[in-house]
Fold each of these.
Amino acid sequence: VRAAMAGWARAVRGLLLDVSGVLYDSGADGGVPIAGSAEAVRRIKASGLKLRFCTNETQATREKFVKKLQGLGFDISVAEVTAPAPAACSILKERGLRPHLLVHNDLLPEFAEIDKTNPNCVVIGDAAENFTYANLNEAFRVLIGMEKPVLISLGKGRYYKETDGLKLDVGAYMKALEYACDVQAEVVGKPSKRFFESALAEMGLPPEQ
Amino acid sequence: VRAAMAGWARAVRGLLLDVSGVLYDSGADGGVPIAGSAEAVRRIKASGLKLRFCTNETQATREKFVKKLQGLGFDISVAEVTAPAPAACSILKERGLRPHLLVHNDLLPEFAEIDKTNPNCVVIGDAAENFTYANLNEAFRVLIGMEKPVLISLGKGRYYKETDGLKLDVGAYMKALEYACDVQAEVVGKPSKRFFESALAEMGLPPEQ
């Protein structure tokens, strides 16, 4: 086993790191770093390995997310982060899709460059307080009004924990819209294969490395 | 065909009638009767056939629902109505279940006699404006906190139309909770077999009549 591991380690030229729950524990106060993780990031970078941070964070722009992590002591920059919203933006551009957005207010700047007039798809993220009865009905009406509804979901998490308790995640609301419109959402973000592939492409490495 | 129909008609001793969309069209103003339907109800009753009204209405008590239909000119009484909430109440009593309710305020009186302390199940109806982010998280926490979550849904409709547009129905929110908790809801109301059977039992007739 050790020989196989050593062989594997020699082939590896880059790492994808999860963030929430791996580098830090989130919370209403901004969260706390997990012991040793900031040092681990420094050592990976010093070793010459390529590194990308791969997150399903959709409650904030990468800028805000990175600023928080820098404040917790991490050596991280916006250019090193792969996140669902920018991945969705590249899909929207590629396919000429104009989204109706049901996302967190703090995520809106990620879609600033995207044409949102006369929507021909719905993009749903972890909208949190924006998951109101009115907003869900509105997103539903946009979808059901399409000849062939296109629903893009920034993740498919079931729920997550915050300091004040468990919260339903984007996956639950995605299922509600899927059922109402009899469609299947296209999931951007982990564990979608395309999401990991785009992170690798950004590192310039093939999967086996 | 005519002979077969005549034979079938001779065997029939009772009828189950749908209400919304059959006897009247609903709307914010209370709705309008469908032409000829009030007269049809009178003729069925005059013919000596047994009659029950079978509805998936979960936004109001039977009392309120019947009062509205009487106002529209229908010969109908509370004792003639089979609806999901009372059907759910008989299941709750039978199984010793104490519900956490996520339902419309106007439906609450139907559950007045039910013990709701220390809940061991969740009952979801078309809660409309009560489908808030906070209320959905609360219902979810009650469910996920159970060793074996029990979710009872007063219907599984996808959506319906009101005068101000389409609205997501209880089925969509049921799917959200099902996914988040990895459970399957027990659906009370049409098209559940048990629901129709209880309507027949209330009429005192077997299915073939």
Amino acid sequence: MSNCKPYVLGVDMGGTNTVVGVVDTLGKVVNSAALKTRDYIEFEDFTDALVKACRRLMSEVGGNDLIAGIGIGAPNANFYSGNIENAANLPWKGVLPLGEMLNKALDLPVAVTNDANAAAIGEMTYGAARGMRDFIMITLGTGVGSGIVVNGQLVYGSDGFAGELGHTCAIRDGRQCGCGKKGCLETYCSATGMARTAVELLSTRQDASLLRDLDPAAITSKDVYDAAIKGDALAKEIFDYTGRIMGQAFADFVSFSAPEAIVLFGGLAQSGDLLLKPIREAMEANLLPYWKGKVKLIPSALKSSESAILGAAALGWKAQ
Amino acid sequence: MSNCKPYVLGVDMGGTNTVVGVVDTLGKVVNSAALKTRDYIEFEDFTDALVKACRRLMSEVGGNDLIAGIGIGAPNANFYSGNIENAANLPWKGVLPLGEMLNKALDLPVAVTNDANAAAIGEMTYGAARGMRDFIMITLGTGVGSGIVVNGQLVYGSDGFAGELGHTCAIRDGRQCGCGKKGCLETYCSATGMARTAVELLSTRQDASLLRDLDPAAITSKDVYDAAIKGDALAKEIFDYTGRIMGQAFADFVSFSAPEAIVLFGGLAQSGDLLLKPIREAMEANLLPYWKGKVKLIPSALKSSESAILGAAALGWKAQ
């Protein structure tokens, strides 16, 4: 950490969009730029465009002498190696040496981690987990990601891939997961998993629902939310089912690291009590006695448009 | 840690026996003494006897000026408070300020933790996990205990109770556990859980087995082992079943902290491939692709009679 430099550069790389921004010590995004990740056929074309964007943003704030480091959150990124390894939702396959390329091109220290870990660092530095030394970040999106903080440190494990709680088993021999396993938490509790539940219930049941007006193949978790707040019973049941499975899983996560809080991030996390209530009930019912009533369940306190970049930026302060 | 003192005092407190010993820097138990935990009606009577034993052992090696600290492993003991809290298998109820009492009586720094964490520290300091920064210790006894090491540190969590993997859910709505929940891993995979499986299979099935010669109420995991090595098919099936449930659970533990190894401790852990093979198969089948074939599964390298006291002693070096 460079104490005298006022800025870091944060890069939030996603399967669709990549956002870059200069962030100050208070967590203010000073300027930013966006790239369409899929516009680049070769990975090198992408990094060239990314480097160009970084240079422009840094020169706008006074040059790269004022930048303490670069933090990057990217899918399947490994903290130890700085590489992206076999990311399913990026257009380039294999091992991508993202950290090394940016370090060489920009002559600044670079730290890389996966998107859920970046979100956890952002939450710890600027958000709902400030001051916490033990918490678990759960990101609810296309998949279920997680960033685990123990003793104030991100858990990277022996190989840099720790914290794949979306791929713990929720239901033995349950739904087929993209990872090759069956019954993974994310097949039920991601936004996509919730849409899967909707399609399942609509096809096996007969009761009326606002969701029946929609094309089943196109139903999203947002549609389920919209129907549920209008009082649709089936939509509420989908939230109850999703929350119950999540709460049961969370109770097991608590047995592992006894976190002070579980922080939920992503669009679904903003569903309020529709989701939080069934999660809390199922979690409490499955906790050991001394944890009952003690583990906080809180939605992220960061604007979703900024949190990933803030997390990546926060990691930049520690880049060496 | 006091560099110039050659010894620590380790206390392994169990529901039946309590063993105290002076241990040197190389992990040699120099002398030791044992107490019957249940011989003392009041907790104060027990600590009086324990203090007396400690004084005698310390004077034998040259006095307490040569002792760097005292480490204690005890059921339901909390590292942060130094207290034993509501231990089900001790004769005294409520909160027992063990750490504080020994610190006052012996004027030495004291560190307290639960028995599974003490075993993990012992394994890391003197045993199979030397040099590892990320591993999980699983103790198989009356229950299933666990000690989790991340970044070279024991995971205590926000309240000191982290690492209760024996109470993660193995089978939803499964067997009733002593903790009040259902389907906990320890109801299937502890020595006691394995005996439960034996009784269940013997009562629901008709096939011949050496185990049918025994009183069902008195069958132990040792009996199952003895029958299995004689080739008894039902006994082998009990090992397969136990191992499969354990391996499935271990795969989820790997998703959490990506350990280099899972170390197994306790009598059952010495069953060799009878248990390790089905564990390994089920674990591998349930791991994410990048962990397949990478996580070691190893039995403890410490003599079971010494490991708990060595673990407690190792903690003593860090007592302050």
